[in-house]
Specification:
Length: 191
């Protein structure tokens, strides 16, 4: 079930009750749009109460995102943007498949296929079959963060969720630095 409600403090909010959700989660998009995802066994009333508890956090996130977007350079003309994407695509195809293979061998985590796409919403994803998709925009990150994203996706081949076991595996694979690397990764945005 997906519904849109008007929150008295936050305005329009999307509520998404899905079988995939394991807990109530609030997310804020770059546009400032708010989404509350929650499991089927949680009532809409409880999800909205959770959102009320997180309203200050949502407002702070909107301020941070607005400041980040204000600092971003204006968009390129379409032809320049297309050339930039193609340059990133070539660099990504030359770097990312070899990088994921090396990290797979180092960690012992196996994957199916790897694809490089122009994804703008996620750095990477892992399917239930262990196929990994990586955004060509990873090429804009420092190498250690590229490795971190790939290790994160490789760990999804073992745990297909964001459970404590998943995070423990990621943390072990990155030498106890998962939280610090996550914080650093959040300072970058896909553009």
């Amino acid at each position: 079930m997906i519904a849109t409600v008007v929150h008295p403090r936050l305005g329009e909010v999307t509520l998404a009750q899905t079988s995939r959700a394991r807990r109530i989660a609030v997310s804020v998009r770059g546009s400032g749009a708010v989404r509350v995802s929650f499991p089927r066994w949680v009532s809409q009333r409880r999800a909205l109460a959770f959102l009320d508890e997180k309203a200050s956090w949502v407002e702070q996130a909107r301020v941070r995102l607005a400041a980040r977007q204000a600092a971003v350079a204006p968009p390129l003309p379409p032809e320049e943007e297309k050339a930039r994407i193609e340059e990133l695509r070539r660099a990504a195809k030359a770097d990312l498949p070899a990088r994921i293979e090396r990290l797979s061998q180092q960690t012992g985590l196996r994957y199916g296929k790897v694809a490089v796409r122009a994804a703008r919403t996620k750095w990477g994803s892992c399917s239930g079959r262990g196929n990994i998709s990586l955004s060509l925009f990873l090429m804009l990150l420092p190498e250690h963060l590229r490795d971190f994203v790939i290790i994160h996706e490789l760990c999804h081949t073992v745990h297909h969720d964001h459970s404590p076991r998943f995070h423990a595996l990621v943390d072990r694979m990155v030498g106890g630095r998962e939280q610090a690397l996550n914080r650093e990764l959040r300072t970058f945005s896909i553009r």
